[in-house]
Amino acid sequence: MFRVFSPSSWRRFLARAVLPELALIVLLPLGVACAGTPSRLAPMSTTQAVPNRPVPSTATTLPTMAPAPTVTTILSPTVKSSPISIVAAENFYGDVATQIGGDRVRVVSILKDPNVDPHEYESSVDDAKAIGSAQIVIKNGLGYDAFVDKLLSASPRPNRIVIEVSQLTGHTDGDNPHLWYDPSTMPKVAQKIAQTLSEIDPSDSAYFAGRLQRFDASEKAVDDQVAAMKTKYRGTKVLPTEPVFDYMAEAIGLDIIDKEGDFQRAVEEGNDPPASAVATFRQEITSHTIKVLIYNRQTITPITTQMQNLAKQNQVPIVAVSETEPDGITYQQWMLDQLKTLQQALSGQ
Ligand SMILES: [Zn+2]
Fold this sequence. Notes:
Layout: H1 7-17, H2 30-33, E1 84-90, H3 91-101, E2 105-111, H4 125-133, E3 136-139, H5 146-154, E4 161-164, H6 165-169, H7 185-200, H8 205-233, E5 237-240, H9 246-252, E6 255-256, H10 262-268, H11 275-286, E7 292-296, H12 302-313, E8 318-321, H13 331-346
Parallel strand pairs: 1-2, 1-3, 3-4, 5-6, 5-7, 7-8
The site of zinc ion (ZN) has 5 residues, from loops.
């Protein structure tokens, strides 16, 4: 998910951030000043008395209902330094970085294809370049995105900040790495991103704080949905083919059968589960011990397909979840969509 700060988005930024404050002031024609490439966002050298930052806060105190000014104020368009470059190893962290950083950041996400198993990802030259020039790198940790560590050490950069999500959540090696499925994780990530951006760009700290507030408000819909489902379905037995969804299932209070057992670990690692584990798994479906079968659509193997078919034959509802955020929706919407699908399956609709 490349978020390029294009000339047109720069114009939109100016229109949004600058024009409202200067509605009654005569402006230089913006079209001329904005016609450059994104690299022109660097401080300009040809103007006089140009502030380095967006319009100083005193400008916002201009009475908006003041009489038409008789003085023509010559203002160059606000000069903004280049957006802060962020590389997220996974696109859900990149999405949250964009939600917090807005047009003050340029975000590149590496793992972003919801049709590919991220556990088998091999990094590219483009990834190395992006990480080499990033000011902030966000990674999951717990071995999930170990390729990032190699790229970081291959291109040392003294001021680069690395946000490792597993450190924020207090997990250690060996823990289930799918941390973004724990509804308590992303607010911590969002908060850390806002804090880090404010340290790099203190003049925009109120902007980041406002966007963090908006993120937290929309994340509440996910928390509310989890709480509602917990009230209704706590203790319901579900059977996942592998552990991607486990943190969310636990948050709902579901009873995860064979949690990270032989079957699930083998599927997660791309191996064939032992015959005894397959037999147990089949029995849990055919005996209707479980209410719902949950599978990871990014880790399909012949054995998981067999189990899906078995569930279908036995009228056991099946819920597909993905490991990577689908394109075009936010993290919050992704989680909500999956929770609602699960709710339908649990309620037998
Ligand atoms: Zn996984």
